[in-house]
């Protein structure tokens, strides 16, 4: 029941989007051919994104340095942020916390993806198919990066007497798999992929608000440090943007590419580190 509620609640904008953007002429392409085509694009997108560092130039390495440096600097606020979010546990609605946990859980997340792609496939709606391909490709890429980093970094999860600089690289214990946040990676990947399909600023804000629930819930549940969530958010957005740009460049899907209505930048100022979206 909770999974069905999440599926309907989060995909409602896309369901309407699919109804509004219906194909005007009958598509005679077989569903099996569409499935093979989309699978091919998923594989190509994942391969492109994972090998993208081989094509990086100076600016790209500079952005990576800023991301790593900003994350390291933000660790100075880990304990302060932890105290703040943990103190909200009693006042934060349990239904929202449950929504955050269920939506960010892999099994529910992939059920939502399956539902979305099936909708686009069987209705032969190219825009919904493209959105789902973007989500799946980005999720695979981010998921692989997140899985590797969790083990390689080996950061301790918050807990009594636990220091935010406690690391045990390549530990097999879940207690040392805090960085980055898997719930955040999945939620932000889907939210950003869907929000990119809309021009309306308020629709975007609504979608990003829903996508922010799992990361916030994980902080309130004392399951992650603020830097785990911040890094995961930045990584997910960068991966989605990279794959979206690739699909457009390859002309994998024929619908007109919307003008970019939001840009993301890492901002530094005295006592402030932010990942800012400009509409």
UniProtKB/TrEMBL annotation:
InterPro entries: PAP2/HPO (IPR000326), PAP2/HPO_sf (IPR036938). It comes from the Bacteria. Gene3D superfamilies: Phosphatidic acid phosphatase type 2/haloperoxidase. Residues 135-240 form the Phosphatidic acid phosphatase type 2/haloperoxidase domain. Pfam families: PAP2 (PF01569). This is Phosphatase PAP2 family protein. The lineage of its organism: Bacteria, Pseudomonadati, Bacteroidota, Flavobacteriia, Flavobacteriales.
